[in-house]
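Tokens for chain A. Residues wanted.
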């Protein structure tokens, strides 16, 4: 019970003590379910990777595994930046919760890939232009092989431009929500493109588990964000 003379406390998900509508509870429940799925998939991939590290040969500095680890760190770090921007600009609890999840999940995964390079004894700095590893021929079944679709030094797929980042920075409220969801859908699609590319170029069990988890979790979030964007059109 709220004491007389005190204002309701505003929490991360809304006003304390305020009854939620069934529709609002339903949207929040769907979002939480997607986030929990992403966390479970990510933890499973991390655990499998830890157990199988000793069985995998060490990648070389110009390998697809090393290139993926470096470039996906950059990609994920921008995802964290986008999540932080919307957290401070949105008044929509569902959008802010999604942004917070992206910040924590992609920040942890970026650190994980930093750790790979350290364990492999490789430099964090790339010895060649970004995206070079995506021009390597596929080395597995070629299901998603896209050699030739990218050129060394090309922008990473789905990476927001400086102008797009500035647009989100200047926005607020529903306008910021729309910009964020649009940029993050494209960002996730680009991450899936990169994850599928490394799956066609590596037999390393750590990298394969991680990339498979990225594809599954980000496809799920794309579906959710597409629905969220349509509801805010």
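Reply:
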């Amino acid at each position: 019970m709220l004491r007389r003379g005190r204002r309701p406390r505003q929490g991360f998900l809304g006003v304390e003590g305020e009854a939620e509508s069934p529709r609002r509870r339903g949207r929040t429940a769907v979002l939480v379910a997607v986030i929990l799925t992403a966390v479970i998939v990510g933890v499973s991939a991390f655990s499998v990777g830890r157990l199988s590290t000793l069985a995998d040969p060490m990648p070389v500095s110009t390998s697809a595994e090393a290139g993926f680890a470096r470039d996906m760190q950059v990609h994920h770090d921008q995802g964290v930046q986008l999540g932080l921007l919307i957290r401070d600009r949105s008044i929509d609890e569902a959008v802010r919760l999604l942004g917070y999840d992206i910040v924590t999940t992609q920040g942890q995964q970026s650190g994980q890939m930093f750790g790979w390079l350290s364990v492999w004894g490789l430099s964090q700095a790339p010895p060649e232009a970004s995206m070079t590893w995506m021009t390597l021929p596929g080395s597995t079944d070629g299901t998603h092989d896209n050699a030739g679709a990218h050129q060394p030094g090309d922008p990473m797929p789905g990476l927001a431009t400086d102008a797009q980042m500035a647009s989100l920075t200047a926005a607020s409220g529903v306008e910021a929500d729309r910009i964020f969801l649009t940029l993050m859908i494209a960002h996730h699609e680009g991450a899936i493109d990169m994850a599928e590319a490394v799956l066609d170029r590596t037999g390393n069990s750590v990298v394969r588990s991680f990339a498979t988890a990225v594809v599954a979790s980000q496809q799920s979030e794309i579906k959710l964000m597409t629905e969220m964007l349509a509801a805010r059109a």
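Confidence is low (pLDDT under 50) at residues 1-19, 37-52. The domain at 23-231 is CATH 1.20.1260.10 (Ferritin).
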